[in-house]
Specification:
155 residues
């Protein structure tokens, strides 16, 4: 801005240069604030999506552990009450473990896909950045054209 101020001769030109500086600084501050807000929104969305996914996974793990513990305790109780029926108890135990494993796998398949959510918030951030950049470009261009008109320079 120092060169512009040095080239301004009249009070009108000096005022135009001051207005230009103010416009540019406001545009930069606005773009920076928009970028910062977009980044903060992206980060909070990312943290939220990952936490939601972790909660789902932890629930599935807890359900699996509960099902396995139940199968073990049922098998132990059955062995204690009727030790002569070992083969049937074993088959029931293996079946219960298989069911627990299948339920866990099915539950994991139905979990939300974090990558899809992340892509969505990435696109929102990208769009916000694009809008802020476009607004910045328009603001600076308008300020530049106004300054050129007042300083009497041609493009």
């Amino acid at each position: 801005f120092a060169k512009l101020e040095a080239n301004a001769k009249t009070d009108e030109q000096k005022t135009a240069v001051a207005d230009y500086e103010k416009s540019i600084l406001e545009a930069v501050a606005s773009r920076r604030a928009s970028f910062d807000a977009s980044r903060a929104t992206f980060r909070s969305g990312l943290v939220s999506d990952v936490a939601k996914h972790q909660a789902e996974v932890n629930t599935e793990i807890a359900n699996m552990k509960t099902a396995v513990a139940s199968a073990i305790s049922t098998a132990q109780a059955s062995c204690a009450s009727d030790p002569s029926n070992g083969q049937a108890i074993r088959e029931k135990f293996v079946s219960d473990l298989k069911t627990a494993r299948l339920n866990f796998k099915d539950g994991r398949k139905n979990d939300t896909k974090v990558s899809d959510d992340i892509k969505k918030i990435q696109e929102e951030k990208k769009s916000s950045f694009k809008d802020a950049t476009s607004t910045f470009t328009q603001s600076t261009s308008k300020a530049r054209e106004t300054l050129k008109a007042l300083l009497g320079k041609k493009q």
